[in-house]
Amino acid sequence: MKYHIDTIPVWDAVKADTECPLCALRRKTERLLVERSLGASVMSPDTRIRVNERGFCPAHQVMMFQTSGGNRLGHGLMMLSHLQTIKPRIDKALGESKGAQRSGGLFRRIKNDKAPATQSALSAFYDKCILCEELQEQEKRYAASLVHLWKTDMAFRKAFSESKGLCVPDTEVVLQMAEEFLSGEPLIAFKKEVNTLLSDSLKRLEEELSWFTQKFDYRNAQKPWGDSKDALERTVNKLRGWCLGNEPLQDD
Ligand SMILES: [Zn+2]
Ligand SMILES: [Zn+2]
């Protein structure tokens, strides 16, 4: 698969020294996509058509709703247009289910076809999000760029080896991506590097989080925090991908 390689943001994210540069980039991208959704693209016919069809997931609705200086009118107009697009389709699906009620209601056809329950007649109206889809594209691009940089730029390789590595989910993403970009010795070396960084990080976080919990003991109240003050956030972010603490790459 061809990827558009974009090395500068990956370099910057590695230099930012977070628990995972790919998470930092994902979150920054997500913020930009949300801002863009509420900005000029509200009125763009192309975006409007895609929003009408796909809508936004709950997490991105929350981000749009809570964005400081958000755009309630823009958000409202997009949702009105989306509602008006899917309402007749939902009515139609409900109408079809009425006729099918005697033999099992909305899910009758699914049961008979042995399709997964998630493919119910209504799921098509709430299982898509244009921001999630764009974010997934960007995620692949940044993971590909990271592997490409590691392959071609020795200074990056050194900086990466001195970093905190990646979170658990993104470790898996880049290991899969590496199969497309690397082979032979470099592939083995890359896997070893990524695995070692994760393993060392988990060991470090265990110590930091342990001290974080011990700091709640009154006997340790006067002792220094060391690096443990945000160990809870960083441990969660390492295990599950960024979701807690300060917004990464905020000041760019
Ligand atoms: Zn990550
Ligand atoms: Zn979403």
Quick synopsis:
The protein has 252 residues and is mainly α. The chain has helices at residues 7-15, 21-38, 45-54, 58-66, 72-99, 108-113, 130-152, 154-161, 168-181, 184-214, 231-240. It has one domain (7-240).
Question: How can the largest sheet be summarized?
Answer: none
Helix content percent band: 55-70%
Supply the number of helical segments: 11
Number of DSSP strand runs: 0
The secondary-structure class comes to mainly alpha
Instruction: List low-pLDDT spans.
Output: none
**SSE string:** HHHHHHHHHHH
| Overall number of domains | 1
Mean pLDDT: 90
Query: What's the N-to-C terminus distance?
Result: 30 Å
Instruction: Note the beta-strand portion.
Output: under 5%
Bound heterogens, unique = zinc ion
Q: How big is the Rg?
A: 23 Å
Name the overall outline.
Answer: globular
What does this structure look like?
The protein has 252 residues and is mostly helical. It has one domain (7-240). The protein is built from 11 helices and no strands. The protein has helices spanning 7-15, 21-38, 45-54, 58-66, 72-99, 108-113, 130-152, 154-161, 168-181, 184-214, 231-240. The two termini are 30 Å apart. The mean pLDDT is 90. Bound molecules: zinc ion (2 copies). Residues 56-57, 59-60, 129, 131-132 line the site of one zinc ion (ZN).
